[in-house]
Structures are given as C-alpha cells and as structure tokens.
Amino acid sequence: MLVDAFLSVLPALLPGNLDPAPEPEDVKAGWTAFGIFLGGVATVALLGWSLVRQLRQVEDARQRGVYGEPEEQEQEQADAADAPAADSTEDTPRA
C-alpha cells in the first residue's frame, strides 16, 4: 500500500515534470517584504533595549542587597559581627 502511494507520486518527481525556475527578471523584492524586514529589525532592537534596561535594574537591586546568594549574605554578617568596632579601641583601658 505504501509502495503504491510512492509509485503514484514518483512520476511527478522526475526532473522533466518539475516546474521550471522563474527567470531573474520575473522575480523582484517587494515593499511588503522590505516593511516586514524593517519591522523585524525594530522588534529585535526593542527587545535588546528592554533586556539591557532589565539587566541594569537587576544589577542595581543586587548592589542594594535586595537579593543575593544566601551564603554571601551570611558571610558578610559573620564578618561584621567578628570585626571589632573602630570606636571600641578608644574605650579600652591601656595597661
């Protein structure tokens, strides 16, 4: 059954039965395709601008400490707790 379907399509695939290619002077690019191309360029540019804007907002939020790696925050808190305050050295009595 599959062979019969293939054999029925085979004559249409022979080189003599294929549609000839159009001549170069018969084919031209249209303004519609150019407009679609420009629309695609504008879309990619808009998406790139939006991506850069979002990445800047993320970096700003990261620097403000809105979110980050929990290990990094815990390490910063531990370092701050272990470090003696600069003013506390003046209050200690000298021997």
UniProtKB/TrEMBL annotation:
Which residue stretches belong to region Disordered?
A: 63-95
TM segments? 30-52
Q: Which residue stretches does the UniProt record annotate as biased composition, category Acidic residues?
A: 69-79
Q: Which UniProt keywords apply?
A: Membrane, Transmembrane, Transmembrane helix
Q: What is this protein called?
A: Unannotated protein
Source organism per UniProt? freshwater metagenome
